[in-house]
Fold this protein.
Amino acid sequence: MGQKWIQKILCGIFLAGLIGGLCGCTAGDFGAARGQGAADIREDAGLTDGSSTGNVLRTDGGSGAAVPEAGNERGTAVPEAGNRSGATVPEAGNRSGATVPEAGNGSGTAVPEAGNGSSVGVQKAGNGRDIGVQAASGGGDTAAAAQAADGAVVVTDFGLRLLQHCAEAAAFFPPNASMPMDVYLETGSSANILVSPLSVMTALAMTAGGAEGETLAQMEEVFGMSVPELSAYLSDYQERFEEGEAEKGKLNMANGIWFTEDERFTVEQAFLEKNEELFGAGLRRVPFDSSAMEEINGWVKENTDGMIEDILDEIPCDAVMYLVNALAFEAQWQEIYHDYQVREGIFTKADGTGQNVDMMYSSEMWYLEDALGEGFIKEYAGGKYAFAALLPREGMTVQEYVAALDGAKLREILANPLEVQVEAGIPKYKSEYSITMNKVLQEMGMADAFDSNRADFSGIGYSRSGNIYIGRVLHKTFIAVDESGTKAGAATAVEMKDECAMLEPPQVRTVYLDRPFVYMILDREENVPVFLGIVEEVN
């Protein structure tokens, strides 16, 4: 058989829908101006007087240079407009170490080092909140490495906690149980769970850039890192994988912000500039009607290579902003499967029933083990990315195994594989997963952000109709694994609303994934799980 490809396409989208009043959605066509200087956003888009321009806003950091379309680093088609200002845009926690002023917020949140690729100190802006970073002398490489390690720890911890809470939500109801739609959406659409912590954290970090007071403190507690530090790490990580794409393996990310042109909502220019500088976010000021939903869904589909068809089913009349992250991963196996390596087998579900499946067999060299389970690592071409799987001991459910893990234990397992021969078996499988993450994130400790009375996102903007808060956090994923390829995609959307609406001796180990298991897509160089999932059944 000719050479076959195993691909992983992992996509993540985060959309933050800010609701800022006026329960009536405006109609109109989207404009097409982009590429203007960030310093001109407020004046040219009418952000202070609420004029309805329908312009596309895309800041370029004040350089006047051409920028990718709609915050997507891979080129979504959006007509270009001239940069009229060329004004210098302050940098927020950027990799150069420039000091950044910040819109008034008054948080006074203590911020440790921002980790911007050099040894850094934090400069306090006159408004009482630490949001910028300033280069300090010496130790740049050491500081950057330390920050990367800390960031990887934070992403792993957050991803595992997210997976655990999603598994707990699903465990409340048996498969195919009858339940109200809102409950169904909060428990997940499938027994097979797949989340992308990188996508969710990037989108939430963009949103948290406008959080203040207790809202900000709770979000940072859930993250496990201050927002400036996390944003700097995610920004640097995005730059590293864009510059160092592995042979036959790539990881792409795009970010965009859509906000309403309705005069009730005034956006903070500093918030937009910060997200453009840190995350390369494209800016779109549009009427929030059905065409806006079509545009956002089209952007999601393109930036997830078609894996996620849509993320929104509606734009509520009280939505004022959406912050969106798209993540796409694609890679070939280091050792591809041949026809003789694929044979029929039985996958035993948690209830004891068996499924006829196609199992893909191979010999691997990295064995994983802890007191409660075992697994293996299967590398993609180039060795930067890998598929890692963990199988609970007989008699233990996959939910019990996941609940027994913590971030430190998972990192220890992944960081200390035994170099022994592993006879491995992976079933061909495909699954889709979607969940409204409001309840999950609230249980993790992010409560105020969803409360219309207590939420403080004053750093994002102001609505005449009421307080701004998160309305929904939506997450969708897809994965298909077979002998010729693997494709996976994820989309996360956060909708914000206002009060208008609510080593060992050499030996052979055998690990066949023929019953429920945990799996991850790993960036082995960064020690970051790009995706974490559970397979309960094979479709």
